[in-house]
Amino acid sequence: LMRPLQGCRGRAVVVGTVTLCLAAGWALQTPGGVSLVVPQPNINATVAQNILLSVEYSCRGVATIEWKHVSSWGTTSIVEWRSGNYVNISTVYKDRVTTFENGSIQLRNVGMRDAGYYFVTVMEEHGTNAYGTIVVNVYEIIYEDLHFVAVLFAFLAAVSAVLICFMWLCNKSLHLFQKKTTHKLTASTTEEIELETIEC
Questions:
Q1: pLDDT value of residue 67
Q2: In angstroms, rounded to a whole number, what is the distance separating the alpha carbons of residues 118 and 85?
Q3: Which fold has domain 35-140?
Q4: The pLDDT of residue 51
Q5: Long-range Cβ contacts of 7-16 (<8 Å, 24+ apart)
Q6: What is the pLDDT at residue 16?
Q7: Cβ–Cβ under 8 Å, residues 119 and 130
Q8: Where is the Immunoglobulin domain positioned along the sequence (predicted)?
Q9: Which of 61, 60, 65, 62 is nearest to 78 (CA)?
Q10: Average pLDDT, stretch 183-190?
Q11: What is the pLDDT of residues 13-42, one digit of tens each?
């Protein structure tokens, strides 16, 4: 009874060793892993601006890249493409998205609804995945502030124009006053000369 048991153990060791060798060989032959770098995880933009959601991935096999947008309005699939094969852009983003070979996308003419989280997934053909996240903040251009500045500028220009006119009027009045004073002095001098002539 002991001999068959030892034979089973021997077979188990052989089968285990062969399985381990096959797994190690498969792991060595399989293109290993995918890496993903997100150089700018936070982006601030204003309405109507174009933004680049920049990433850089590397893998030995063929990769599939997928971008999704998550915000308070829900989750939206933006684009999915397989390197060198196909590009599938969502109809919502059809005319607004450009894809790049390194996995990045450009989003044109952003609006307030484009704020939120952008998730990128890079899936290698052998099942290895890498994930990245970019947070996008979109701000409105505050036209009220620009309006205030424009009104203030117009007000200051009007005040400057009034002050210039006032100074011109003051200068003209002073000139007229000096002319009158000179005329009076000339008249009184003429009268004095006439009086002296009569007395003589």
A1: 98
A2: 23
A3: Immunoglobulin-like (2.60.40)
A4: 97
A5: none
A6: 43
A7: no
A8: 40-139
A9: 65
A10: 64
A11: 444 443 443 343 334 334 458 999 999 999
Which residue is associated with the tokens 């000096």? 178
Q: And the tokens for 43?
A: 């982006």
Q: Which amino acid is at 25?
A: G
Q: If you count them, how many residues does the chain have?
A: 200
Q: Which DSSP category does 137 fall into?
A: E
Query: Taking the alpha carbons of 140, 110, 90, 85 in that order, is the dihedral positive or negative?
Result: negative
Q: Which two tokens stand for residue 192?
A: 């004095």
Which SS3 state, helix, strand or coil, does residue 200 take? coil
Token pair of 137 as six digits: 């903040």
Average per-residue pLDDT in the chain?
80
What does the pLDDT read at residue 23? 40
What are the structure tokens assigned to 54, written together?
């920049």
Instruction: Give me the long-range contacts of 153-159 (CB less than 8 A, separation at least 24).
Output: none
**Residues 174, 191: Cα–Cα separation, whole Å:** 26
